[in-house]
Amino acid sequence: MNAIAINDVHKYYGQLHVLRGLTLDIPKGECVILLGANGCGKSTLMRCLNGLARYDCGDIHIFDERLSQLSPSQLRTLRQKVGVVFQQFNLVQNVSVFQNVLYGALGQQRFGLLTTLSCLASQALRERAMSALARVGLAHKAQANCRDLSGGQQQRVAIARTLMQDAQIIIADEPIASLDPKAGREIMDLLLEVVSERGLTVLCTLHQLELAQQYGDRIVVMKAGTVVLDSPRSTVSLNSMRELYQGETRVDQTSLSPNTRQPLRAI
User: Do 11 and 55 touch, CB atoms closer than 8 A?
Assistant: First the structure.
């Protein structure tokens, strides 16, 4: 069963044709490392997958659910299955680490925000939050404010928040881009350990080609809005990845026929 199935997806920003018929399947439980130079469409694809951006034509299925056919409430329910780890952490800086992790359960609670506030959260939620923090090695920082943590520690909090969400798919958009090399390796090791333990599906974008050779099951390379390489990690050489990075260009609509430029139904 595919956790993610992307078929002939196109995305435009004005006259710019960013995703150009992109097709990619990710089976349940697989970890895919997505590579590509700036402007190739990686982040746009991630935004389409988590519902932050609307694609213009093609199909995206998450666990056999076609995104373009879901109502807003159905889409919100589906998003609970998809955890996102961002480059910039997306934490609430002026509240505690513990509170940020509790926010991960927001979509599961009938009364929303109120039931995820640390002063009102149930004992079960509080224990889950502490368990998630312990798993990422930050139980001792539960009462610290996020703004007082290092970048690597903040990314660990973001991973703990995703664990609290009980997501089945993890989308990690350049999760180590803001970290030094040592902290970046530690975060990648932790992330892959956690998803392996839970049997999660992962799509992780990276810029560091050397690291890409060490993590995941498959390497997928994007160029000009489409997939140009999709192979098991063990079969992809560093030189071949470097060659695919060279000469990266963004694609606009000027080369498209008028019919192709017309957007179709969006989610």
Answer: yes
**Domain enclosing residue 158, as ranges:** 89-166
- Classify residue 181: in a domain, yes or no: no
Whose CA is closest to 264, among 56, 66, 55, 68? 56
**Does the pTM exceed 0.90?**
no
- State the pLDDT at residue 109: 56
Residue 149 located in a structural domain: yes
The answer to the question of residue 148 being in a domain is yes
Contact 225/45 with Cβ under 8 angstroms?
no
In angstroms, what CA-CA distances link 56 with 32, 63, 266? 24, 21, 5
DSSP annotation of 256 reads S
Predicted local confidence at residue 72, as pLDDT: 84
- What pLDDT is recorded for position 264? 33
How are beta strands 218-223 and 226-232 bridged, if at all? antiparallel
Q: Would you state the pLDDT for residue 107?
A: 65
The H or E element spanning position 152 is helix 151-165
d(CA 225, CA 219) in angstroms, rounded, equals 16
pLDDT along the chain (267 residues), means of 10: 94 93 95 90 89 89 89 84 85 91 75 61 88 95 93 94 91 89 92 92 90 90 92 88 65 37 34
Q: How many domains does the chain have?
A: 1
User: Which two structure tokens, joined as six digits, stand for 231?
Assistant: 């192979």
In one-letter notation, the amino acid at residue 87 is Q
Place of tokens 């606009």: 252
Residues 6+ apart with CB under 8 A from 88: 178
Distance CA 22, CA 17 (A): 12
